Amino acid sequence: MGLKLRGYQSGDFVAVRNMLVESFAESGNMGNWLIDRWNFCRAVSHTMHNTYDNWEQTVGVWEDDAGAIAGVVNSEGEERGEAFFQIRYPLPASTLEEMFAFAELHLPLQEKNQRVLRLRIPADDTLREAIAYERGYTRLSREDTLSVLPLGNLAPMPIPDGCRIKAGAEVTPEAKAVAHAKAFGYYDAAEDRTCPLAFQRMKEAPDYRAELDLSVVDNAGEVVSFCTLWYDPVNRHGILEPVGTIPAARMKGLSRAVIWEGLHRLAGYGAEKAYVGSTMDFYLKLGFAPAFRSYVWEKRL
Q1: 50 and 67 in contact (C-beta within 8 Å)?
Q2: Number of helices and strands (H, E) in the chain?
Q3: pTM above 0.85, yes or no
Q4: Which residue numbers in the chain have pLDDT < 50?
Q5: At what angle do helices 93-106 and 126-134 cross, to 10 degrees?
Q6: 157 with 134: CB under 8 angstroms?
Q7: Residue pair 5/98 in contact by the 8 Å Cβ criterion
């Protein structure tokens, strides 16, 4: 099997998305992204961090002799010196070496007088670990973990009084942008840092479903909590990304209510499981349990 590196092309977005779906069906522990992250980062993260137009130039694609994508190296588009490997099936060491070299060339972050790169390696991936050691990486205490919840028995969860849930078509990108900014701590009433374009682009993402883009709206019409879910019908699972509640509305059960509504909708599509990229106590108390773990490795070039 010959694998060749080429530059990313705009038409690759759906092809990579399909590769992520197929690779999970074959082996969920490869450390690949699920479809939520691929869609959300392209639409929202790249827009918010002003990398939407140049992100493609930093992505490497490896394809086999038949033209099928077998590997990808990409960032989240936040220019934080982070690289992520997406792998179709176990790759030879020579190709993995090329992927490391590509990431080290294109994706480091300048920190003071050093260039720093951080990447994720799945737990028990001894080949990637060996290459990382040999290339001078150190494993940090940080990790990325996907947690899972079976959707077999979902008890109802009422919406607190004074609120109602609206789906994506009923909520403007502007309202969602303000809620996201408040929930994640970058809102400033005196200086508008919200990004409605990011949430407009999210609505245009290939895997976006308006009926799974849920917002809790209070009596004043403000979005006070939200949860967007993405559904992978091939693997029959859904993923939560993003989830948030504005500070003034926390500790009222709103996040639990909107997540539970989304999980019921996922189950209605035929989803058997839901994933979230977190091990916070909040999710563990909802019934999620750690499933796939990757560790963060760092190299100072």
Answers
A1: no
A2: 9, 13
A3: yes
A4: none
A5: 50
A6: no
A7: yes
